[in-house]
Amino acid sequence: MCCPLRLLPGPSQAEQRTLIGWQLRLSRKLERVPGRRPQAFRWTLRLHKLVKLRRLVVWAQAFFFISAPELPILVIVLGDSLLALALILLYQLLLNFINLRHFNMVGTPELRDLPPPPLPKRSFDVAIIGAGIVGNALAVALGNQGRSVLLLERDLSEPNRIVGELLQPGGVRALAQLGLQDCMDEIDSVPNYGYQVRYHNKPVQIPYAREENGKRPEGRCFHHGRFIQRLRAAAKAAPNVTIVEATVSKDLIRNAGHVVGVRCTPRGTKDEICYFASLTVAADGCKSNLRADAISRTPEVKSHFFGLELIDAKMPLKNHGIVILCNRAPVLVYQIGTHETRALVDIRGKPPSQADGSLKAYMLGAVLPTMPEELQPSFRKAIEDSKSIRSMPNQWLPPTANRTPGLMLLGDAMNMRHPLTGGGMTVAFNDVVLLRDLLEGVSDLSDTDLVLEKMEEFHWRRRNLTSVINILAQALYALFAADDPNLKVLQRGCFNYFQRGGICIDHPVGLLSGVLRKPLVLYTHFFAVAFYSIWIMFKTSSPLLWPMCIFRSFAVFYTACVVILPYIATEQQS
Ligand SMILES: Cc1cc2nc3c(=O)[nH]c(=O)nc-3n(C[C@H](O)[C@H](O)[C@H](O)COP(=O)(O)OP(=O)(O)OC[C@H]3O[C@@H](n4cnc5c(N)ncnc54)[C@H](O)[C@@H]3O)c2cc1C
User: Fold this and answer.
1) Which of 183, 194, 272, 431 is the most exposed place for a label (fewest CB within 10 A)?
2) CA dihedral 489, 494, 495, 498 (to 10 degrees)
3) For 235-287, what is each residue's pLDDT tens digit?
């Protein structure tokens, strides 16, 4: 390597020795590099500096020997430049070699078994997807526990939906336990004291059952959007809560099977950003796009609710939800503001088309005549005035225990029931209360095993309330939307059962309102209704028909079992 310098005249011997010394040292360092990977990297950097210095020396030589014959100078310059070039190439090769080694290292099996890397500094204790009913309440509850909470919502403007407008007393109580009862104030909400069920226009009043202190509890009706905005304001004001308006992608960030964060696109941008959290809660509602990632169950659409807003409607019974039963699926009516009343018309199977006007024709021709007389004018006007009638699917999704490390599904994303009994928000707020209490003892949410243990406990402990609300909603809907003769016997029997009053209404309404949390009481009343329906069938039939009634009573009892037992079974599963 040093031959050109030694053979050619030009630099003095001392200068030549210096140059040769540089080259020798460089080559020695290069030889030492393999096998010492981290060192080697540092050496290549130093080498880079040396090569630069070497070039300076060469150019200094050229300048210094400018008076010498031209040829040797050129050869020296050329020789040293080539040498410098060779060293640079060598250095590049070395770098590639190191990169290659480094790349291979990540893929080695021993390293795959490493525990997940520590979370980056810019991370949260909890990331909640969806600032709806569950998301806001949970953000407030966990923020108050001193945890850093990130709440992600795709649209922070006031929602305009036909869902979540009647909060049962059991939900009102849970809201108070979360310190959020104020959210029902200043939104023109209306108190609700129970139901009136109308069977072919014969009414029966079902007030909420008295509590131990002798008082009748109160539910509340409101505009969903206004309530949500109040909940969001509470979340914004809560300590440790950061709200970001962004749509979360369904591809969560995972590390060795653990969910460690979310990818989202902030509103008004196209760039995807990442947030990291010890626990990610998917509270993104009935159309959750994260559900499929965590559970295998899919929601079953039972029917659709078509929603109308009646203005200044004359209610048959003030401050009560009205349930209208006839030969079709039920209609539910309740006041949501001083001047506004919601009517939800249930339609089973394929609904009539909006586009060709069949839906309006159906509403005017088939539904309107079955409505209480005092409601008919406002109902007719609402149909005629509405450009398009909004609808929502009524779905059934039994609960599933959360078993994905780092991820939890909550609210409609995890569990849904028919909204006829207005139980969704009551379940949601009670779930938040239970989860808050269970996580109270968990100091570090990245302790995945402990969190998973708590989630299992959550799944089983919520059942007393939620299974009651879920099964009741599904069973009552089957009876109220009776579409076969045996179900019609049960429907009539159920109405007559309510007419008996006393515990025949106090217990069922206590279960429905989320106050009475005893599944056994539900099963007892359900089968009491089945036997009472059979008894009514005999009572109202001529003795000549009794032999047929005996045969029919088996069919009715079998139908009752088919209505309730599958729901009880799914609620027992994990
Ligand atoms: C027709 C109908 C009527 C109902 N009526 C009642 C009633 O009267 N009383 C009652 O108690 N229950 C009722 N329910 C049920 C109730 O509405 C739900 O149980 C409740 O709203 C569930 O709350 P949630 O927080 O799970 O979902 P939601 O309240 O739906 O909240 C989900 C939130 O997530 C956001 N989101 C979704 N995807 C993303 C994403 N990718 N990124 C960021 N944000 C996202 C949404 O914008 C939304 O704000 C009704 C349901 C239906 C279908």
Assistant:
1) 272
2) 160
3) 999 999 999 999 999 999 999 889 999 999 999 889 899 999 999 999 999 99
- Return the pLDDT at 503: 96
- Nearest atom in ligand 1 to 152's CA: 43
Residue among 207, 205, 203 at smallest CA distance from 218: 207
135 lines ligand 1 (CB under 6 A): yes
CATH assignment of 123-187+222-298+397-464, among 1.20.1560.10, 3.30.450.70, 3.50.50.60, 3.30.70.1270: 3.50.50.60
- Candidate of 128, 129, 133 to mutate for ligand 1, largest count of ligand atoms within 8 Å of Cβ: 133
CA of 304 to the centre of ligand 1 (A): 15
pTM: 0.80
520 SS3 class: helix
The number of the ligand 1 atom at minimal distance from the alpha carbon of 130 is 34
Cα dihedral value 144, 147, 152, 156, nearest 10: 20
Rounded distance between C-alpha atoms, residue 293 and residue 251, angstroms = 9
Beginning with the edge strand found earlier in the chain, give each strand of the sheet holding 300-311 in spatial order.
Answer: 202-207, 194-199, 321-325, 331-335, 340-347, 300-311, 390-396
Provide the pLDDT confidence category of residue 87 given band limits of 50, 70 and 90.
confident
Total residues belonging to the chain: 574
Tokens representing 296? 């295998």
Which residue's CA lies nearest to atom 52 of ligand 1?
A: 163
Give residue limits of the domains in the chain.
Answer: 3-112, 123-187+222-298+397-464, 307-387, 482-572
3-state SS, residue 493: helix
3-state secondary structure 48-71: HHHHHHHHHHHHHHHHHCCCCCHH
Nearest protein Cα to ligand 1, atom 41: 248
How much is the pLDDT for 83?
74
**What are the tens digits of pLDDT across the range 510-558?**
999 999 999 999 999 999 999 999 999 999 999 999 999 999 999 999 9
The answer, yes or no, to whether any atom of ligand 1 lies below 6 A from the CB of 321, is: no
Q: What is the pLDDT of residue 311?
A: 97
| 429 neighbors 178 (Cβ within 8 angstroms) | yes
Separation of alpha carbons 229 and 225, rounded Å? 6
Nearest protein Cα to ligand 1, atom 13:
164
- In angstroms, rounded to a whole number, what is the distance separating the alpha carbons of residues 437 and 435? 5
- Atom of ligand 1 at shortest distance to CA of 285? 27
Q: Residue 453: CB within 6 Å of ligand 1? A: no
Taking the centre of ligand 1 as the mean of its atom positions, its distance from the CA of residue 333, in whole angstroms, is 20
The protein residue whose alpha carbon is closest to atom 3 in ligand 1 is 163
Residue 178 DSSP SS3: coil
